[in-house]
Amino acid sequence: MSMGKRLTAEFLGTFWLVLGGCGSAVLAANFGGDGNPLGIGFVGVALAFGLTVLTGAYAFGHISGAHFNPAVSIGLWAGGRFAGKDLVPYIVAQVLGGIFAGFILLQIAQGNPNFLIDGSQAGAFASNGYGALSPGGYAVAAAFLCEVVLTAVFLVVIMGATHGRAPAGFAPIAIGLALTLIHLISIPVTNTSVNPARSTAVAVFAGSGALGQLWLFWVAPILGAMIGGIAYKWIGNDK
């Protein structure tokens, strides 16, 4: 497959992940206010992120590998599954796809005259954060550890599900369910990143607070992904 088609697939897949996942958080998580049965809440948002990866992987996996996440690309490179020369183009396509989704989501949200982004509030415009910007008030160390560990486990699941000896055709289901579980664990801690492109996509619209904390949601997921990729490279080696 040509690089142009692969990058387009990564752009579209990351666009879908951010629009579906962050869109559910912005538009539907608290629809109608607290206690309204129509609001999907944490569980709904977690499922939305998992479903975007599941459907995106089936749509684009045969084209680009369906990374949709700079940390995943770097983790697969660390695990010997992805060429280093393709890292920068993939990451650029992922970030641009995410930001475009954030822009589209903002246009939709602004269709409600009561919509307002309050950058001082945790989770503003589905942004990630720690300390005062953590949904549960978790400190920076807890947030960092959470993102490292969960991204590492995510890479282990990805590499295991796509191993040559794994059941064929089921990888997107395992990966989507893993991302759902990751969100169920960590939405209260960081609003769940494990994906620098997803974090960047909304931080650029959420204000200086989210942008000031964005460093953690690049460093921690990438570190975790490298740990997971290297660990699975050893675990999954038949020798």
Automatic annotation (TrEMBL):
Site (Selectivity filter): F49, H183, T192, R198
InterPro entries given in the database record: Aquaporin-like, Aquaporin_transptr, Aquaporin_Z, MIP, MIP_CS
Motif (NPA 1): 69-71
Annotated PROSITE patterns: MIP (PS00221), PROKAR_LIPOPROTEIN (PS51257)
GO molecular function, one term: water channel activity
Site, as annotated: Involved in tetramerization or stability of the tetramer: C22
Catalyzed reactions: H2O(in) = H2O(out)
CDD domains per the UniProt record, alphabetical: MIP (cd00333)
Compartments in which it is found: Cell membrane
Annotated membrane topology: Multi-pass membrane protein
Ranges spanned by the short sequence motif NPA 2, renumbered to the chain: 195-197
UniProt xrefs under SUPFAM superfamilies: Aquaporin-like
Keywords from the named record: Cell inner membrane, Cell membrane, Membrane, Repeat, Transmembrane, Transmembrane helix, Transport
GO cellular component, one term: plasma membrane
Superkingdom, taxonomy of origin: Bacteria
Pfam family, one: MIP
Transmembrane parts of this sequence: 38-60, 87-109, 138-158, 170-189, 215-235
Function: Channel that permits osmotically driven movement of water in both directions. It is involved in the osmoregulation and in the maintenance of cell turgor during volume expansion in rapidly growing cells. It mediates rapid entry or exit of water in response to abrupt changes in osmolarity.
Similarity remark: Belongs to the MIP/aquaporin (TC 1.A.8) family.
Subunit structure, interactors included: Homotetramer.
Entry note about domains: Aquaporins contain two tandem repeats each containing three membrane-spanning domains and a pore-forming loop with the signature motif Asn-Pro-Ala (NPA).
Name of the protein this chain belongs to: Aquaporin Z
Organism for this UniProt entry: Stenotrophomonas humi
Gene: aqpZ
